[in-house]
Design the sequence.
């Protein structure tokens, strides 16, 4: 991508999109195109069509999505399916209509089967039942992958889907009920610290294993992929199974290749926040999938690796939380 290329970051205010903005700006990209939800509702086809026809971006990072943790997915399954399906359908189609050179579609590791072999390879897609607590979201994302794949096969486009592992970092959602595990734990431990609560309750048994990637590392991987030369990039776009007989979707996993238990994660967050009480696990609450570890050999083989350790990333995330909530680490004010 040329430094002055017109690049549209859909969802630029979210965890993923804001990390992409920081990375692109740091690398000297000067023609970044953004719209807030109030300015452009990506679920509305007519608005998306008008936007692409007028702006004609050359590259698209599709990071806009409705996201949340287990509670949010269980509470709003219709919205998670409908909104994500509408967003990606509108953006991918209009990207083709207006001649976008490359599109990067951001998915999630929940696309893989609940009991997939570990670590999960890209070709494990569609090989088994999904985790029921986030199935609507996962199926919507799988549909986005298939749409990229179909447009590549029929129209010769260069649309790549990337599947980041669990993300955290600046710009995260710290909602009390609808956040993912790391921002939820950060807020819970911080509030317990400020009120001197003797215990903090964590959902589940603490035994599931999860992989976590700092959002700025994820963004660096995405920009790295979008800048690959055609001969390397095209190899990642999957195969036409009808011609080759090989099932290989246009998917690249993004992660660190290591995981921790939720119990281990909770202990690290507790230490970073400085909470001195006890952790109690509520085993009546769902665990989700027993393990979600990505095989990142495909990405590592072409020259990219994550740089941020879990402890360093969590320290930065906690600092962001305190700034977001307008408090200091030792303050009870929000």
Sequence:
């Amino acid at each position: 991508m040329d430094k002055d290329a017109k690049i549209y970051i859909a969802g630029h205010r979210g965890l993923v999109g804001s990390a992409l903005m920081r990375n692109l700006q740091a690398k000297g990209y000067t023609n970044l195109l953004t719209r807030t939800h109030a300015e452009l509702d990506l679920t509305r086809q007519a608005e998306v069509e008008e936007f692409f026809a007028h702006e004609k971006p050359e590259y698209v990072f599709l990071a806009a999505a409705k996201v949340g943790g287990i509670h949010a997915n269980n509470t709003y399954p219709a919205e998670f399916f409908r909104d994500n399906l509408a967003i990606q359908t509108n953006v991918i189609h209009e990207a083709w209509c207006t001649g976008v050179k490359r599109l990067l579609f951001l998915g999630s590791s929940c696309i893989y089967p609940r009991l997939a072999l570990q670590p999960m390879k890209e070709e494990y897609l569609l090989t088994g039942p999904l985790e029921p607590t986030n199935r609507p979201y996962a199926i919507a994302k799988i549909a986005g992958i298939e749409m990229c794949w179909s447009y590549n096969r029929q129209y010769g486009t260069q649309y790549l889907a990337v599947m980041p592992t669990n993300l955290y970092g600046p710009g995260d959602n710290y909602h009390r009920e609808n956040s993912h595990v790391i921002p939820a734990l950060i807020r819970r431990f911080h509030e317990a610290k400020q009120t001197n609560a003797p215990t903090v309750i964590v959902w589940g048994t603490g035994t599931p294993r999860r992989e976590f990637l700092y959002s700025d590392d994820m963004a660096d991987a995405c920009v790295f992929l979008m800048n690959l030369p055609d001969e390397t990039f095209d190899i990642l776009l999957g195969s036409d199974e009808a011609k080759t007989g090989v099932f290989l979707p246009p998917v690249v996993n993004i992660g660190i290749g290591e995981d921790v238990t939720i119990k281990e994660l909770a202990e690290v967050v507790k230490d970073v926040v400085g909470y001195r009480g006890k952790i109690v696990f509520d085993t009546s609450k769902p665990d989700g999938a027993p393990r979600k570890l990505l095989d990142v050999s495909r990405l590592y083989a072409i020259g990219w690796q994550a740089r941020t350790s879990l402890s360093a990333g969590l320290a930065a995330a906690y600092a962001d939380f305190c700034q977001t909530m307008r408090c200091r680490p030792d303050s009870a004010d929000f």
User: Anything to note?
Assistant: The two ends are 41 Å apart (CA to CA).
